[in-house]
């Protein structure tokens, strides 16, 4: 056993039980404070670490929220951009198709016009004509107008053909005669420009004065009195 002496606050010795331990402090405030601080130090350290962890957790949570918000904003903007790009692509596709259609239509018209010009040049090279009078149609290699509504005598019919820009027609050959006959809608007679006014028995074209085809032995060709009225046929050229 040990015996220790402790002083009360007045400096008197205070007896203690033999089995009790007594601590004699020479500098109680400093010694007890140091003891207390030494015991509380780890607790303070734990509290600081806890604060740090809590701060880090809050920072991480805030950071995650910020990142999520940024991600949502970016995704929303990206989707809006994708939508605008898609709309632009659809618009461009529509404009492209429309432009292609217009271009194709223009090309088709140009091709038709070119073909018409080529056909006209080919016809002109055959007939020697540059301008075809209205209502004349190509029959064989030449242009003719068939009047099957109005009856006129020879002189009036010839004048009418001239007013239309042509001449009372003369036939080149039997092949051309057959082609013209296929165009006639009735069995009535038609005036032709073949005549022998200058020299009896010498039949020439009223348009050119050249010899014209005439075969009175054919069933469909005959001589006719010039004063009688009939339908008539005009030609556009002076080839015959």
Counting DSSP H or I runs of 4 or more residues, the number of helices is 3
Q: Provide the structure class.
A: alpha+beta
CATH class group of the largest domain:
Alpha Beta
CATH superfamily of the largest domain, please? Mannose-Binding Protein A, subunit A
Mean pLDDT, to the nearest integer, reads: 81
Provide structural commentary:
There is one protein chain. Helix content is 49%, strand content 13%. The protein has helices at 28-127, 154-163, 174-181; strands at 6-7, 13-14, 137-139, 142-152, 167-168, 190-191, 194-195, 204-205, 230-235. Strands 3, 4, 5, 6 and 9 form a five-stranded mixed beta sheet that branches. It has a two-stranded antiparallel sheet with strand order 1-2. Strands 7-8 form a two-stranded antiparallel sheet. It is an alpha+beta fold. It has three helices and nine strands; from the N terminus they run ββαββαβαββββ. It has two domains: 32-127; 137-235, Mannose-Binding Protein A, subunit A (Mannose-Binding Protein A, Chain A).
Show the helix and strand layout:
Layout: E1 6-7, E2 13-14, H1 28-127, E3 137-139, E4 142-152, H2 154-163, E5 167-168, H3 174-181, E6 190-191, E7 194-195, E8 204-205, E9 230-235
Give a concise summary:
This protein is of the alpha+beta class.
Brief descriptors of the model:
13% strand, Accessory gland protein Acp29AB-like, 5-stranded mixed beta sheet, single chain, 2 domains, alpha+beta, Mannose-Binding Protein A, Chain A, C-type_lectin-like, two-stranded antiparallel sheet, disordered N terminus, coiled coil, CTDL_fold, C-type_lectin-like/link_sf, 240 residues, 49% helix
